[in-house]
Automatic annotation (TrEMBL):
GO molecular function, one term: DNA-binding transcription factor activity
Provenance organism: Clonostachys byssicola
Protein name in the entry: Acriflavine sensitivity control protein acr-2
Taxonomic placement: Eukaryota, Fungi, Dikarya, Ascomycota, Pezizomycotina
Alphabetical list of InterPro entries matching this protein: Fun_TF
Keywords: Nucleus
């Protein structure tokens, strides 16, 4: 199906040997975190059993053979019955609504897929064994937010050292093996299983989110984008439909692709507005993707980011046409109706959840409006906005406050919460954002949560310093994030 493959091996060759990740796994030992002693003994397993435990989110695994040292035995034991829950990848893990379950039996015969699952699971376990953010050093108050000297401790998550680095080593080793196998598959992609390749790329994006959510995810997104473009073109030419699994894999990759453009400093693809086929795929993901991001809002983020990049390279942005385009995007975001969206989504949602969907969509709408407004102010600082940004922050917090850790859609609150944290100067709002990310970490110990708080700490500190030096005028967190020079993926 994919006969034209010249770009693929070259694109992934450097990734497979560790370049582009800063270090290959052999030189990443300094990142090893020592695990805190577990009072309940839940994590006192051998490394492989702990990996399996975190993959399923249930009691201790019966696996006794290391996934890393005994892959044949591991494959023979891995079965769908032993993987009863895959919650991190979807909002609802309900039979017939979680296509990721199909990956488990595929891993029996696909070492590349197996190693990717092992890598993500081991890294997840390594994160989860770190200190609880509810420790005394993590208590967050308005006073601690206000006191700049206490920011590092009050905003840390999982900063303690662990005593069991072997799971982190396993994660790096399995990731390296997966990348090498992926490189080989891409060199002969015409005979490879494209669904397996897409699944591996998608899970590697997840690995980067579990790790930090910055930097390396762009390699996987770029590789997946090339394959997806060819798949869509082939589908249109042959008038054939994607299988449910392929549709789910493609749609998830597309969501991360568009969402990643919001805080990416690297070059964005020069693509226009998504095609009808792409929008349909994005809508397919709305029902159960972990972000629950309304498909209608995602292209607005990409278009805003492209507008920012385009005008940055111009010595004098076109005041009229560019600003007109920006306000068109802003108007489209404000015109989005969360209630209508939530009702229309119900046939594709695994659960009857219109009220929670309205809350999530309303928060995302306000966050996209803030994001686009900051792009406008970055390019045209004297522009008078039609709304108050701090009011939009309050709107985000009001909607997200109705989502609690026990709710299925709670993990879909990270992106709007991050936007609210970037924008607000209110100390109470900042404290709320910190608590929300602490709760997200307790529920799902992904490194992107820790890194998001670190980015907020940096932004708040920079804004405080600028205020002290009377440089607050035209202050913009969009520009500050760009100056950091990191590609962030908050999902």
């Amino acid at each position: 199906m994919l006969q034209e493959r010249s770009k693929l091996p070259r694109l992934w060759q450097s990734v497979a040997v560790g370049e582009g990740y800063g270090e290959s796994w052999e030189t990443n030992w300094r990142y090893v975190r020592r695990h805190k002693e577990d009072p309940e003994g839940r994590y006192g397993l051998d490394s492989a059993s702990a990996v399996a435990f975190y993959l399923v989110h249930t009691g201790p695994s019966s696996f006794t053979t290391s996934f890393i040292n005994g892959p044949v035995c591991a494959r023979s034991r891995l079965s769908i019955e032993e993987i009863p829950r895959l919650l991190d990848l979807v909002l609802y893990d309900i039979p017939n609504h979680n296509p990721f379950r199909e990956l488990i039996p595929m891993a029996h015969h696909q070492p590349m897929l197996l190693q990717t699952i092992i890598a993500s699971s081991a890294l997840h376990m390594s994160n989860a064994c770190q200190c609880s953010p509810r420790s005394s050093s993590m208590l967050t108050t308005t006073a601690s937010i206000q006191n700049h000297t206490s920011l590092p401790s009050s905003l840390s998550i999982g900063s303690c050292v662990t005593s069991r680095p072997e799971t982190f080593h396993d994660a790096l080793r399995a990731k390296q093996q997966a990348l090498c196998l992926l490189k080989s598959a891409l060199e002969d992609i015409a005979s490879a299983d494209v669904d397996v390749i897409l699944a591996v790329m998608l899970l590697l994006i997840g690995f980067e989110l579990i790790d930090s959510g910055r930097g390396s995810w762009t390699f996987h997104i770029n590789g997946a984008r090339i394959i997806i473009e060819k798949l869509i073109a082939s589908t249109l030419a042959t008038e054939t439909a994607f299988s449910p699994l392929r549709s789910w894999l493609v749609s998830n990759c597309l969501v991360y692709d568009l969402l990643g453009s919001s805080f990416a400093n690297s070059d964005l693809p020069h693509s226009g507005w998504p095609s009808t086929t792409t929008m349909s795929l994005l809508q397919d993901a709305e029902g159960n993707h972990c972000s629950s991001f309304p498909a209608a809002l995602l292209p607005l983020i990409r278009a805003g980011a492209q507008l920012l990049k385009t005008n940055e390279v111009s010595s004098s942005p076109d005041t009229y046409l560019g600003l007109q385009d920006a306000f068109h995007l802003l108007h489209a975001a404000k015109s989005f109706d969360p209630a209508v969206w939530a009702v229309n989504l119900q046939p594709r949602s695994p659960a009857n959840d219109p009220s929670h969907r309205i809350e999530i969509a309303s928060a995302h709408r306000a966050a996209v409006c803030i994001y686009l407004s900051r792009i406008i102010l970055a390019l045209w600082p004297t522009t008078v906005l039609p709304h108050d940004l701090e009011t939009l922050v309050a709107e985000i917090i009001a909607h997200l406050s109705n989502m609690h850790p026990g709710d299925a859609l709670f993990t879909a609150t990270a992106w709007p919460a991050f936007i609210a944290g970037l924008e607000t100067v209110d100390l109470g709002n900042r404290a709320w954002v910190v608590r929300r990310f602490q709760e997200l970490w307790e529920l799902e110990p992904w490194g992107l949560t820790r890194e998001a708080l670190g980015a907020l700490r940096t932004i708040w500190g920079a804004r405080g310093n600028d205020q002290l030096q009377n440089q607050e005028e035209n202050w913009n967190w969009i520009e500050k994030l760009q100056n950091i020079g990191t590609d962030w993926l908050i999902a």
